[in-house]
Each structure stands twice: as C-alpha cells, then as structure tokens.
Amino acid sequence: MYQVSPFSNIISLFLPLFCLLSNRHGFNVNNKIRYGILFNNENDCKTPDAAIGIGIAWYGIIAAGAGNSEWVTSNEGKSAKVPVMAKIYSLSLVRLSGASLTAAGTCNPCSINTYAKDDVTNCVANTICGNRAADGGTRLTGADRKNAGTCNPCAVNTYAKNDLTDCAANTICGNQAAGITRAVGDADRTTAGTCNPCTTKTWAANEQENCVAHTVCGKQVGSYDARIAAAGSPTTDSQCQACIPGTWGAATIDCQVCEDGKYNSKPVQPVCKDDCNAGSYILQDKSNCLKCPFGKWQNQNGQSSCIKCSKGKVLRLTNQISDKCEECATGTYNPYEGHTGECLPCLTANVKGSIECEGW
User: DSSP letter string over 196-217?
Assistant: First the structure.
C-alpha cells in the first residue's frame, strides 16, 4: 500500500522547501507545473517529491489538474505519484494581527456593519433593516461588532412586509354612508390593509373618502321616469340628463316649462333666461329667442311674437324695436301683412301705400 509522506499535507509546515528556497515557483516551473511551486527534500528540483499548483505533471504523467501531488514509496519499495488534493481554495482575509514565531497574535474586530460572536468566527453582515415612516431613521437595534442586531416593528398605523422594507402608512379608509368605517380590519404591522367598497346606491371617488348617496335624478316634462344619463357605481355618481330646451330644472328636481317671457336654449342651463328684449321674440316652445325678421317689429321685452307691418307697407330691417314700416311707393303695392320682401310692381297703383293692384 502506498502511504503519503508527512510533507504531503499542503496546509502543514512540513512541505520540503528546498525548491521553494531555490526560487522554483511561478509559471511553467521546470516544465513540470503550469503555475505553482515544486518541492523536494533534497536540493534538486529536477526530481521533485511534491508540487502544488495548476497543471501538475512530471515524467510525462499528469498528476493533478489542480492542487498538490507527490512521489510516495510503498512498504514493498515501489514508488508512485499520488495526487493528494485537487481543489483550489479562495481564502478570506483573516482577522489575525501581530502573529509570529514568538507571538500568538490577536484578532482584529469585525469591520463596520459586520459582526462575529467570537474571535474564531468569521465576520458577517449585521442585520439589514428598513426605515421608520415617521422620521426615516433605521429600525435596526442592538447591532454591534459582536451582535447581528434585530429590526424593530413598524410604529402604530404603519407597516412593512418584511424587515428589509421601509415602513409606510397603513391604508386609510373613509366611512360608509351610515357612518361606520370602510376598513376591512386586516391592517397590521406587516399588511397595508384594505377598504370595503361603498354599499348599494352610494359612492366615493377613492378609498379615503366617505361614501355618499348617488344623485337621484328628476324627470323630464311629461315623463314618469328619472332622467338618468349614466347609472352610478361604487366609485362614480349617477349622471342626470339635462332638461330639454324650453324647460328648466336642477339635476335632482323635475323639469318645468319656462314661464311666460322666459326661454331656455341650453339644455345644461338649470334656469330659464329673461333677456329676450324688444326687437326679438320667444319661440312657442320657449327653446330660443330670435330677432324679429323683415316685415316685423317689437317694442316690448319677453314677447312671444313680433308685430307685423300692415298691408301697403314693408320693412327691410331686422331686430326693430319700433314701427318703421314704410309705405309702398307709387307704382307698387303690398297686399300682405308682415311681408318680408319688397313692394310688388303695379302700373295702376297711383298712390303710395297701395294694397291692391286694379286690373290684375
């Protein structure tokens, strides 16, 4: 059986050092190792007993891809090359300071934001905590170079889903129309919480507002049904149709016909207007106020019609507030009241203001 010699352990201090002291380390050492160190218990690196590094080979035989290897001798006197270890280790920085052959050394404390419970333990990061909602300060407490620390819970009415998350305010809910809160009751130090929707026939634009009743729409003139344009939802109010022209009424009351002398030309107008002045007239359905046309005039406000020019006269102006009708000239006549055109020609009309044309 082959037995590994005592200097095969690379962690011990018993590796043969002759080649190391002879500067037999680096790249392609004696063409026996790609990168590493050759060892021998004799001052001869041509026939090394051990090696450590990457790509170890000598005498044409690959001993190890990485790690260390050495020649060993069996009890029967036979020699062979044995790969003792084939691993690459990445070592962390040690905390040991001041150690030597005559001094034990001491352990440096862990760096800031790290800790270890004792000197033989590796340093690791302190606990990481989110911040408080009120002042933005950290929730970490009890952390030092020997303790990980813990995270304080969020303050009342605030939450964070875990220790790493900053605290934020719990969801704020308004009230139902009856006055009770809309909060479901699931809010705590780790959950934001949710709000119940508004109850039937009530609404609120968002969760923070109190619910109020949907608007109840009035009726159009002559109708038994509410003039609803869009039904309400838990987040929107009902929308009411406007009153038709000639009528008026706010959204929640029934529409009414404008009283005499007033009109409403805009459906969105909640009241009737009374600005139909002299020179104009209100339509029969009270939906608008128009200027008096040719052949008519009006000297009073809020009237439902204009006064017609008499026969034998014409008026070629609009919006007239007085009787400015003019008699037809000789040779012309007008047989109509409120005639909108010119006087008609007539050879037998030999007086002004003629209303007939004899012989025709």
Answer: PPP-TTEE-SSTTSPPEEPP--
